[in-house]
Design brief:
The chain has 227 residues and is an alpha/beta fold. The protein has helices at residues 2-18, 37-45, 56-65, 84-90, 100-112, 139-147, 171-186, 205-210, 220-223; strands at 27-31, 50-53, 72-75, 93-97, 117-122, 152-158, 192-198, 215-218. The longest helix has 17 residues, at 2-18.
Length: 227
């Protein structure tokens, strides 16, 4: 696994430099969903410390097993409002806030544990029926709603483009998310930071970096195919 991690880190650095960016501005989220604790432990040993999970119950077991390891945990899957109370206890960043209802529930649950929860808004740039996320048109309204919630800290946006064999075909979707981020920045909404763009996975992360990704979510290239 160490070799795979090194290869991905080298590719991230090369993509950043080609885009005129610093590799330090891009963080690798190792997507550890469905992988056992032992695999995450290997990734920790290989130098990774940031992991992405999709399922609350599975994540809870890993967070408990690896407490004290220095691992950070991001929630990257679809989150139901009734799981918000668990999410705020487990995760350093939630990538997938997609509705005012979910935002309000996260805010309420974070307040109960005296936490300001960092979040991203998930945008369904491609408008695919099978994908979660708010629409591009409704993003500003959702961002504004979140800005009024004292126990949420909005850090940026996340998206998943359609799957393409050619990663360059995903670039327009990444570009659109960056432009939406820049538009929201220009509105200077109080309490809203827009420094994170979570986009790009194993098949297209270099294209995402070229368009401004700060968080790339990579699973298969690190852990192998999901069983």
């Amino acid at each position: 696994m160490k070799d795979r991690i090194a290869e991905i880190q080298n590719r991230i650095a090369a993509a950043a430099e080609q885009a005129g960016r610093s590799p330090d501005d891009i963080r690798l989220v190792a997507v550890s969903k469905t992988k056992p604790v032992a695999s995450v432990q290997k990734a920790l040993t290989g130098g990774l410390n940031l992991f992405g999970e999709n399922y609350i119950q599975e994540a809870r077991e890993k967070v408990d097993a690896l407490s004290g390891s220095g691992a950070q945990w991001h929630f990257i899957g679809h989150l139901q409002s009734n799981k918000a109370k668990y999410a705020v206890k487990l995760f350093d960043l939630i990538h997938s806030v997609d509705s005012p209802k979910l935002a309000r529930e996260l805010n309420k649950q974070a307040a109960k544990i005296d936490k300001v929860q960092p979040v991203l808004v998930q945008v369904n740039i491609s408008a695919e029926a099978t994908k979660s996320g708010t629409s591009s048109e409704e993003t500003v309204d959702l961002v504004t709603a979140i800005s009024d919630l004292p126990n949420l800290s909005l850090q940026g946006l996340m998206t998943m483009p359609p799957f393409f064999d050619d990663p360059d075909r995903a670039r327009p979707y990444f570009q659109e998310l960056r432009q939406l981020r820049d538009h929201i920045r220009s509105l200077t909404i109080p309490g809203v930071a827009m420094h994170e763009l979570s986009m790009g996975m194993t098949g297209d992360f270099e294209a995402a970096i070229a368009e401004g990704a700060t968080l790339v979510r990579i699973g298969t290239a690190i852990f192998g195919e999901r069983s």
